[in-house]
Queue: 2 jobs
Job 1
Amino acid sequence: MTVALVRLGLVAAVLLAWEVAGRAANPLLAVPPSATLPALRELLLLRSYPDLGASLLVTLREIATAYALAVAVGLAVGGTLGMNRLLGRAYGPMLAALYAVPAVVWYPSLMLFFGLDAASKIAFGFLLGFFPVTLAVLAGIRQVNPHLVTVAKSYGAGPLTVFGRVVLPATLFTLVGGLRTGLALSVIGVIVGEILGSKRGMGALINHAYGLLRTADYVALVLVTLALIVGTDVVAGLVERKARAWSE
């Protein structure tokens, strides 16, 4: 209850400061919450942007595709590097170095290669989600007791069996954290990609409202996008909590 009250107090303080600053600023550049709420109502009623539902579906589809690819490729690459010490030592530091590069520098090349359609957004979301998943798998495998792997191999277990029956359960605690981070970054990658250049999706709507100086609609669209991001993180947090409880 105390934590909830503190959070509500913080939200109230932010809204109050936003209201004061919004009323004092140029209405073309900033709007207070009292002007945003009517715009948000019109948006949710599909009056200001009737294609809101279709744009949300496009963005969600791109996020799901990008994250699925990031998880599949990340598990494969991380498992391969973790199970092979030579490959892990050779390419692990390279992956960590590439992960440190600001991801936005890759987007112009992706946009030139894939165009303005959904493929470039999926590729950008995949790129952001791939690295945390791969590095989490690699770090988790390095923490596995090697004696467990030796015992499994001595009983005739193949590489896939060893990975699925021994390595994966032992790395679950580390893996779920990487999967949650990968999901958050995939969501951010897709939405940022849409904002930087897209014909459809939530980013395209945000660009449209911003370009026409429809500031209230712009803020309302940002709030809907923020709710989408927070919602995916909440779901990922619940899954992570259950996975951690099961692993313990």
Job 2
Amino acid sequence: MEAARNISKKVLAFDVDQTLNIAKTPIPPEVAELLAKSLGYFEICPISGQKFEQFLIQIVEPLREAGVSGQQLTHLHLFVAQGTQYYRYDLEQKDWTQVYNYPLTEEQIAQITATLEAAARELGYWEEGKLKPGDQIIENRLSQITFSALGQTAGTEEKYAWDPDMKKREAIVAKCREKLPDFLYEIGGTTSINVAAPGMNKTFGMTHLMEELGVKQEEILYFGDMTQPGGNDYPVVEMGIDAITVRSHEDTTYALRGILGILG
């Protein structure tokens, strides 16, 4: 794990799955407690391929259970679908409002969806028979289409076991690029592939984060588990933003305790 260069930061930004939680589960109580404390010092900005509803389930509700107030939530900024959608808390309305959204067109959605399914079927990785009732493999997240091989509600152990070395997803992405090259493909989480319009990755999200919050990149500290070249956090590293590479939410917990300890 890399050490933060200093604590002269205004923003702590986080990947979600494998950084704040076990994939597709709510953040643990100790993470919620540390984030709640951090809201007293920083703007907190989760940025992930997840859809808005998952941010509420995985982050906002655990924070409320930890006793976070509406005033504190005004310092929590939800950068959804790699930051191609942005939500912030309106204290007067006591609800989340969408600040911006850059959706795909209906034609793009249809092209991406058909290509993902065709590629997965050709490779033998279309696991429709393993889905739980009501679940789906391909999800329209408006500004992003996400392939989740076992659906959203599969068990954690099952997901971890499906593609631990990412070879299956790399093969699907390679096949998709042959069929539909003019899109951005990113591997994330444990079974997911995110597909978006060119340039709509975390570079886009972090650039808009800086614009919306009025901060410079040196005022941001980023936490992510896939900061290596090809990982969906790597665009943040390429921008020159200070990053702490973690492998689990336990690593993030350790780092946050250190930061908060220094701040007293």
